[in-house]
Amino acid sequence: MTNFAKHVWPISAEVIENRLKLDGLNITELAREHGTPLYIFDEATIRHACQQYKSAFADYPGGVEFSYASKAFLNLAIAKLLLEEGFDFDVVSLGEMQMALHAGARPEQLHLHGNAKPRFELEEAVKAGIGRIAVDNLDEANTLADICRELDKSTSIILRIEPAVASNTHKAIQTGQKGSKFGLSLKLVDSFVEIVNRSPHLELLGLHFHLGSQLFDLSDYQEALGVVLDLMVDLWDEHQIEITEISPGGGLAAAYTATDQVPKPVELADAIVDFIVTGCNQRRLSIPTLILEPGRSLISRSAIAIYEVIGSKPIEDPAVGTAEKYLHVDGGMGDNLRPALYNAPYTAIVTDQVEHDATEMVHISGRFCESGDVLLKNAMLPQTQIGNFIAFASAGAYTLSIANNYNLVPRPAVLMVTNGNVRLMQRRETFEDMIRRDT
Ligand code: PLP
What we know:
The protein is built from twelve helices and 21 strands. The protein is α/β, with parallel strands linked by helices. The longest helix is centred in the middle third of the chain and has 21 residues, at 219-239. It is globular and about 70 Å long. The termini are far apart. The model has no long low-confidence stretch (mean pLDDT 96). Bound molecules: pyridoxal-5'-phosphate. The site of pyridoxal-5'-phosphate has 16 residues, from helix 10.
């Protein structure tokens, strides 16, 4: 039985003589050469995803800007690639800001997000002349107005609202529901406008929401966009503020398992472009610029994670129909917290036995000292031995960006394959890296 669901693997992935290859390169050999855990990105998959977004929205009449949600994963090589593709950056910290700038982004290309931006980060953003600050709450609006006054510098802002739409996704990654920690409740919009009107330095250009991540149901976007369009009318009627930009954030799902059928960017465009245009016409609004902030859907599929099998442990008295052994691997919640955080599902294969019969049901258990460190439960695999390599698909988003040094295990090396060539884009962390801050 083959376990190879093509749509969850990078587009250059193929199985030749039972072996997993990326762009023609043998993954088992790359794992031996570079060590594990190892993350390998496929450049073609990222570029393909960028193109899909660009072509899907090319006809939007108000103009579209794409702002990559850096939190999904940002390093120098990825940032440069996305700049080449014409993407801007949604950043949430000074670190993400600096990384994007270091890669060559202009400050105007950055949008600063977050529900708790420290004052010094707001100051740095204003000083740098950042493109937009997404104001999240009234305190932040006041702080920002103070900072701008002190620096005598203006800044363009968009308002992140809480649209009170509970998107259809795991609760841990919902962000637009009533009571969310993110975004301003609509009840407080008038108070926000007072702050903006009092400040000669804050220029309100847009409205923003982000409903959460791993979204399959596109009607959630429509519901929240309806809220935004109504608010545009209110802001004009009551305050003569014209909103010229709207952003529905990111959120489009990535495929992790064989059964995941994810909406494509073109389906998102089908769901929202006409909806916005018609909604604006009905309300006599000018068509605003659309700012899209994809993260997961741009990067998740592009990477695989490789682990080495270290050993196993039989499970005594397993529940009926569940795994009979733990298969211990050399990574886990240090490089990928998602399964431990919210039981995120994955697809895993043995890199040189891809099409062998899957005869064993195992829990692929991480090396870290938490019982919750199980990367994949009840995975069907062929018989494995110590030294085999296991590849996880769709490992590009919210893995390395949330990676940590639990148990003082160094974070993995990261490779990029392009046109049959491989390059190291981030070396494996070392003990020296980890002790550098200690005094
Ligand atoms: N925009 C904002 C403001 C976000 O907070 C996030 C993710 O948390 C995104 C965009 C990207 O979401 P996704 O990776 O699901 O596309």
